[in-house]
Each structure stands twice: as C-alpha cells, then as structure tokens.
Amino acid sequence: MLMGLGAPRFLQHHHNNKLKRSVFTPNAIVADSTSTWADVVVVGSGIAGLCCGGLLARYNQDVLVLESHDVPGGAAHSFQIKDYKFDSGPSLFSGFQSRGPQANPLAQVLDALGESIPCTKYDSWMVYVPEGEFLSRIGPTDFFKDLEKYAGPNAVKEWRKLLDAILPMSAAAMALPPLSIRGDLGVLSTAAVRYAPSLLKSFAQMGPQGALGATKLLRPFSDIIDSLELKDPFIRNWLDLLAFLLGGVKTNGILSAEMVYMFSEWYKPGCTLEYPLHGSGAIVDALVRGLQKFGGRISLRSHVENIIVENGRAVGVKLRSGQIIRARKAVVSNASMWDTLNLLPEDVVPKTYQDRINKTPQCESFMHLHLGFDAEGIPADLGIHHIVVNDWNRGVDADQNVVLISVPSVLSSDLAPPGKHVLHAYTPGTEPFELWEGLDRKSNEYKQLKAERAEVCSVLV
Questions:
Q1: In angstroms, what is the C-alpha Rg of the chain?
Q2: Which residue in 73, 220, 245, 294 has a CA-CA distance of 20 to 30 Å to 366?
Q3: Which are the contacts of 458, defined by CB distance < 8 A and separation ≥ 6?
Q4: Residue pLDDT, tens place only, 394-422
C-alpha cells in the first residue's frame, strides 16, 4: 500500500534558505527524444506512468515515456541539495515485500520487472491531537491502550465493535486485488465479475453475517460507520484522519474496500510499515531500471504540447520543441484528467465528457517545507513520522489544520550528512489554490505569502 495524496495543482517548496537548489538525476536515466516513433507513447513519468511504461516494455512493446521535468517521478520524485536528499511526495508505505494477487500493486509491478526495493521496517508514528500526544502503534492490541488513556472506555468499546465487524470482511477485500478496485460502476466489470469465484469462496468462509457485511465493500466507509452506530467523537475523527491519509478524503468519500484492506494490513499480528532505503526516490529508480531493462526509453525535459488525433484515434504527440513523435498503437496520459483534456483537440472530445471533467472538483494544493538540520541534541527515538491535528472540529480537510512531518533520515541515514537530518513537513492537499493563483513567484507579495502560509509548518519544527 503506497499512501499519499494525488498530484496537486500547485507545489510550493519552502527550503531552508541556507541551502541552494541543485538537480538530482537518478542513475541510469538517459534523455532521448530523438526517436520519432514508438509503439506506445506515455505522457508523464509519475509512478503510474512508469508502471504503465515498464509493464508494456516487459511485454515486448516499444515504449517511450516523455517527462517535462528534469527528473522522473512526478509528485513522488526526490531532489538533492548539497548532501541533503529530500522526498517531494509520499513517505508512508507498506507492502513492498508482499507477493501474490493481493499484494501491494506497486510490489506486483516491481516483481514483474524483476526489481525490488530494500526497506527498513517500523511500526509506529507520533500523533499530536487535541486530546494529547502519543506514539500510535499499528497492530491488534496496542492502540486499545491509547484509546483507553486519551479517549476513554466508550472509544475502546466502539473500536472493538468496528474491528469485530470489518475484519471478517477482510477476506472479501483481499479477494479483490487492489489493482481492480475502482470508485465507479466500472468496478462491476473489473472486479465483481472477474473475481466472482474468489469472492463467493470468501463469502462462504465468512458465513452469512460476514457475507452480508462484504456487500458494503463498494460503498463509502461512512456507511459502515453509520450502520454500526459509532458515535464516539474520537473514533469518528480518527477514522476520518486514517481515510484522509490513505486517500485524501474523509470516510464519506473513500470506498469501504480500501479501508478494510488497510485495516487488515495494519491491525493484524506482526504487521509493519516500510520505508525505502535511500528515500522514496529509490522507488522511481527501480521503476526506471525496470523500464530500461526491457528496452523502454524515457526522455526528460520533453514537454508535450498536445496529443495528435487523426480519424478519432490518438496517433502521437507534439512536443513544445516542435518535434512530432508518432505512436503505432497508443498514447497513454499520466497527466491529470484536466491537463489531459487540455492536450486533446477540443473537437474530438465529446462535450458530455468535457463537462464531466470540468465539473470534477480538484483537491486543494500542498504547502511543503523541506529542511536540513543539526541532529545534535535530538532524541535517538525521534521517529520518522509525526502527525499534527490542531482542531478536530474544523475537520481533517480544513486548511492549516493537519500537518504531516516526515524525518526519513532517522531510518535511512544516507539522506543527510553525518550528524544531520532531513525533514519534510506539509499540509496534505488543503492549501487553497486561489490564494496563489496569478502571483509572480519572483514578487515580494509571493515571498511574503509563502512565509506566512509556511508558518504553520515551521512553528511545529
């Protein structure tokens, strides 16, 4: 399970002003946009684009991945400033070592490409909530102690009621491979029909009560919470926070299957979280290696200006440089749905589709703070993750309310010079974009706003 939010419209990096920006180029990246043909052209080298390109190359397709940036990875790339190596995106992971149909989808792709990611394991993160500060551990029993101390016996009772209800559903959730889960009616063809035998087997094992509950897997998780009549404020807030960390939405916006799958991974005996050694950039490096191992190509600094459509079929792309690259079989876009719509000729896209995309709300932006700091005097048990919620009443999706802090150098010391740490603090998809829209990044107004809005992160660190 790779946890994090979708690519934002706007990324604001606020760096320690003692450090200067430099370019980090992962090993084995070869910028090559000289070829004018490929079987499949992939627009964008985010995690999904690299997975798509790698698997197509693995199955003998001539693939060219085009990336506008000077490094691959999209919102999940890493960058280096002097001897400090920073994650730009997600930092909470699990399941890289899993195998089989129910494995982490990214682990399945890496396995197909013959690649692996060395990881270090851990089982907890620090939580700072209005009720208090505590080390939250994953697993079946430790969290009950935290609930007893910070929320009371009723919260313990409701949490136990929730686990008793949803853990039996985990067999059905695990029978649906994560790659098949979708949030629309297409799930009926991609999941329920294809995996009907394994679902029926799971229902038979669970018995009538479990099978009845499993029918809720494709409904919002809030339906399960409401059906169980869970009313404890801490429990409901905590579940909103978990859903937000997993999918960027609260419990009323996330599929029950995703939450049940997460619960089965986090609240079973012996479960752990994982962090890739050498940082999240190691994930991108592994995917690029897999792509190139099977003959796939990646071209950096290759901005796609538009997708060429002839006779109702995407047949290539035009780069900002003016170069035309033709696709024998397909063009795949790893850009957002809104950006993809802008890449297509307006007259080839049905108006109903255009309207649906334009009416789909985008998540808010991310405010990022990246720091390199001295480790002297820092406790040895600092821990990698720290989650801050200032006010439950405002909601976990309110701006300036939830701050996530990652200090990955406590687990992968090569990310910082000896005696130093790297830190990544950010507000997760809650920064209002309209505050920044139209501002000149070189203006004093922009710099002042950046300092003001980053204050919620810098005060905490």
A1: 23
A2: 220
A3: 369, 425
A4: 999 999 999 999 999 999 999 999 999 99
> What letter does residue 271 receive in the DSSP assignment?
-
Helix/strand/coil for 76: helix
Rounded CA-CA distance 251/242 in Å is: 8
Q: Is the separation of the CB atoms in 298 and 67 below 8 Å?
A: yes
Of all residues in the chain, what percent are helix, strand and coil, respectively (each to 5)? 40, 25, 35
How is 150-187 classified by DSSP, letter by letter?
Answer: HT-HHHHHHHHHHHHHHGGGHHHHHHS-GGG--SSTTH
d(CA 70, CA 298): 11
Tens-place pLDDT, residues 242-273: 999 888 889 998 888 888 878 877 777 778 88
The enclosing H or E element of 448 equals: helix 444-453
Sheet holding 273-276, edge to edge: 2-3, 92-93, 273-276, 119-122
Residues 6+ apart with CB under 8 A from 197: none
Phi, psi of 329 (to 5 degrees): -120, -40
∠ CA 61-65-66, nearest 5°, is 150
